[in-house]
Amino acid sequence: MVLWFVGPAIAVVWLVFRSPALDYRVVALGALLPLVDIALGGPRLLHTLLGAVLALVVVMALTRRRRLARRRWLGIPIGMFLHLALDGAITRAQLFWWPFLGWDLGGGGLPELDRPLGVILLLELVGTAACWWCWRTFGLDDPARRDLMRRTGQVDRALAPPP
Predict the structure, then answer these.
(1) In this structure, which long-range contacts are made by residues 154-158, counting pairs with CB atoms below 8 Å and at least 24 apart in sequence?
(2) 84, 47 Cβ separation under 8 angstroms
(3) Which of 16, 44, 48, 137 has the most CB within a 10 Å radius?
């Protein structure tokens, strides 16, 4: 479950913000960050709304008066919010709203792994398609644009809509 989180997260952020200046690598990192809970054996803070909000608060506090740093690092909480939507954690009230509905995380495994294998594979195919869509939309078959994405995580400004 990697492409299911990376592709749609980047595509949604592009479709919503249309900003070539965002660091889409950081958005992808934020979308994958809650997978750290796999190493912890089950859903924890990173699969809760509180975890994403705390990440947002930390980014906002650490980047005061540093607009460019803020623009880059806001991708982490944005990606984390999208992960919660994409893995279905928002459908588990005990987990999503922890600790506001009690201290129990609701039991069960990680939402992204709590599906039949066929569904997981289908979601990976959808994620692959979303990655392909991003590749084509961002013109990454052009070596200069691909190098820009690799170095800065940004999209060529020529692709941005006019102001």
Answers:
(1) 154/20, 154/21, 154/22, 154/23, 154/24, 155/14, 155/20, 155/22, 155/24, 156/20, 157/20, 157/21
(2) yes
(3) 48
Q: 0.85 cut: is pTM over it?
A: yes
Beta carbons of 93 and 106 less than 8 angstroms apart: yes
Handedness of CA 63, 65, 68, 71 (dihedral sign): positive
Distances (CA, A) of 49 to 60, 77, 155: 17, 10, 29
Q: What sign has the CA pseudo-torsion 51, 102, 87, 138? A: negative
| Residue type for position 18 | R
pLDDT means over runs of 10, the chain (163 residues): 96 96 97 94 93 98 96 97 94 93 86 92 98 97 97 93 75
Encode pLDDT of 30-69 as tens digits.
Answer: 999 999 999 998 899 999 999 999 999 999 999 999 999 9
Question: Residue 19 carries which side chain, given as an amino acid letter?
Answer: S
- Which one-letter amino acid corresponds to residue 37? D
